[in-house]
Amino acid sequence: MTDTDTTVLDAPSATAPSADVTVEHSSDHPVDLGLTLAPLRHGAYDPTFRRTPDGAFWRTTLVRSGPVTQRLVATGRATVVAQHWGPGSREAADGLPHLLGEADDATTFTPPPQARDAVRRAAGLRMCRSGRVLEALVPAVLEQKVQVVTAHRAWRWLVSRHGSPAPGPGPEGMRVVPSAQAWAAVPTWDWHRAGVDPRRAATAVRCAQVAARLEDAAGMPADEARARLEKVPGVGVWTSAEVAQRAFGDADAVSVGDFHLAAAVGWALTGERTDDEGMLRLLAPYAPHRHRVVRLLFLDRRPQAPRRGPRLSIADYRAF
């Protein structure tokens, strides 16, 4: 763990209009905003996340006190200034250290030889903790058993139509994710228009219906939190791991059941393909940092194990 300093600033940033709340967060370790926040972005055209040419990262979120738009700028190797607009500004500002991975303790981590160069190049990589369970859970459900491009397209379509306008002066087209009530009320035909099959749509609706109980999981120990998520029919170990990585900042959550992950990890670490059981054996020596190892191995791009068959075609559920 590290010492930090988060200071409320009276003067707004010179590069954006005056915000409701502006804070400066300083850490005693480097923070790479791009690498740390990357898991929160669902595709290049995610309406809840933008990076602008001036180097600022814009994101929206829905906290308990309401919607908020954040603009985050690195002003030093270990300093970030965050501006906030909207009813949830104060709450989001208070959670900034968690979002930037301040609670991520990598002091006990010894990387595998294959990741040592990545560790040097990614000194500012932290495991972010958004604390927002449903925001992590719905896109994870959309990504179940489909190509990621299909899931990202569905997320963009649903958030654009059922989310709310982003407060403040953010980039054009930004939206705030729907509330739990709004997710539960998405009509069947809109799930279909988004290309989401009935099974995934039903799972997302069930999650929204018990969202209050699921949000409480953010304050629970990792195993208990994931067990609570997995009580929802349709939420399995892969989905709960994806949520744990983003909402809980879990550096050990491995996405078991991913179509490509095990083969890619095996190839990166041994030069041979493997299955989920083999992947867990390979990663076992690095607990409680197994997800950190995966992030580092895939820092530039996912290692490509030789393909054994034709590329899977993209299923368009809108045509069914």
From TrEMBL:
Catalytic activity: Hydrolysis of alkylated DNA, releasing 3-methyladenine, 3-methylguanine, 7-methylguanine and 7-methyladenine
EC number: 3.2.2.21
Keyword DNA damage: yes
CDD domains linked: ENDO3c
Region (Disordered), start-end ranges: 1-26
InterPro entries attached to this UniProt entry: Alkylbase_DNA_Glycosylase/TA, DNA_glycosylase, HhH-GPD_domain
Domain of life: Bacteria
Keywords: DNA damage, DNA repair
Stored PANTHER family: DNA GLYCOSYLASE, DNA-3-METHYLADENINE GLYCOSYLASE
Protein name as it appears in the record: DNA-3-methyladenine glycosylase II
Naturally occurring in which organism (per UniProt): Isoptericola peretonis
